[in-house]
């Protein structure tokens, strides 16, 4: 959920995650061991120093760079092919969309979604999100057509 580790027993978030935390705490049956606070930082470290202490944005940015490096070439190639009328088979669109979502899905759990003024100048999170949205959108019609064709051929179980 993007929490940063402030100390052994204290995790922080720049966003109000109360509902999500309550749901997890209740599902795990650990409500008696968890407390939630809303706080204002009045301490001695700058906001930037606090961010650097609690989140490894360099590592996260490297993961975003790897995602972009892995998926942007295929996106640009397929985008060009679509314009030229030379699209991919629906099954390939399904596989690409599946892998795209699979590879991206962990980011929302680890990215603290910090305000832009606390992010590095070379932050790639927004570029990765845009790539996901555009590539997913480009693949969706054909990928869904593949799923529909598989479901149309699925055997009907006996009563």
Write the layout of secondary structure elements.
Layout: E1 4-7, E2 10-12, H1 18-28, H2 47-54, H3 57-83, H4 90-104, H5 107-110, H6 125-153
Antiparallel strand pairs: 1-2
- Please give the count of helices: 6
| Overall geometry | flat
Structure classification: mainly alpha
Number of DSSP strand runs:
2
Q: How much helicity do the residues have?
A: 55-70%
Amount of beta strand: under 5%
End-to-end distance: 44 Å
**What count of domains describes the coordinates?**
2
- What topology, given as strand order, has the largest sheet? 1-2
Low-pLDDT residue intervals, each spanning 5 or more residues? none
Order of helices and strands: EEHHHHHH
Largest sheet: 2 strands, antiparallel
- What is Rg? 21 Å
Arithmetic mean of pLDDT: 91
Note down, in words, how this protein is organized.
The chain is mainly alpha-helical. The protein has two domains: 1-55, no CATH class; 56-159, no CATH class. 59% of the residues lie in helices and 4% in strands. The chain is built from six helices and two strands, in the order ββαααααα. β1 and β2 form a beta hairpin.
């Amino acid at each position: 959920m993007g929490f940063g580790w402030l100390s052994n027993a204290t995790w922080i978030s720049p966003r109000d995650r109360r509902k999500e935390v309550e749901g997890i705490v209740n599902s795990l049956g650990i409500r008696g061991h968890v407390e939630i606070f809303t706080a204002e930082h009045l301490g001695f470290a700058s906001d930037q120093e606090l961010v650097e202490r609690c989140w490894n944005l360099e590592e996260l940015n490297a993961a975003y760079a790897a995602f972009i490096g892995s998926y942007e070439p295929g996106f640009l190639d397929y985008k060009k092919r679509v314009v030229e009328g030379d699209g991919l088979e629906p099954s390939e669109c399904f596989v690409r969309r599946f892998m795209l979502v699979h590879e991206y899905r962990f980011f929302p759990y680890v990215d603290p979604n910090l305000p832009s003024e606390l992010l590095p100048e070379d932050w790639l999170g927004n570029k990765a999100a845009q790539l996901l949205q555009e590539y997913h959108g480009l693949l969706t019609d054909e990928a869904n057509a593949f799923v529909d064709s598989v479901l149309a051929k699925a055997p009907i179980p006996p009563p």
